[in-house]
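hi! just following up on the protien thing from before. the input was this:
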Amino acid sequence: MKEIRPLQSWHEIDPDYIRRMIRRRKTRIDSVVDVTTSDNFNLRIKPLLVVDRKIISGIETKLRNKVGEFIRTKASSMPFDQFIVYMFSPQISNDIFEEIKTIYPTRKIEIRKSEILRNFKKDIENKDETQVEEEQIDAGVA
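and the predicted 3d structure came back as:
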């Protein structure tokens, strides 16, 4: 199976900032969520949750699944440029907090890293151009 490599790392939070958030008696919950926007951009979003106390793994899993589901639904309902603005705004943290506060309250929610995996729009455009060139060669035009 071929590994999917990111085309471009969009942004990343400084490791020192993360280290300052994570202290003793806190739980760090990392997640990796692959999403597709409404205009067919594939992104890999890596959210980070910080909880004030040590929690059991079952709650960690529920939080991770709920955050992944929330980000996927938001991304699929927005075009790429609108989702990027939403992702960099503090609104995404507030919305995620509202979704998961019934499971367990979190201290901090950040989007740790995001990467662009693929743009299917460009692939389709490139495919159309190569098909046109092939048709011209077959017809003897080029």
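Residues 8-139 form a domain with the Tetrahydropterin Synthase; Chain A fold (CATH 3.30.479.30).
Helices lie at 15-21, 57-76, 80-88, 91-100, 120-139.
cheers
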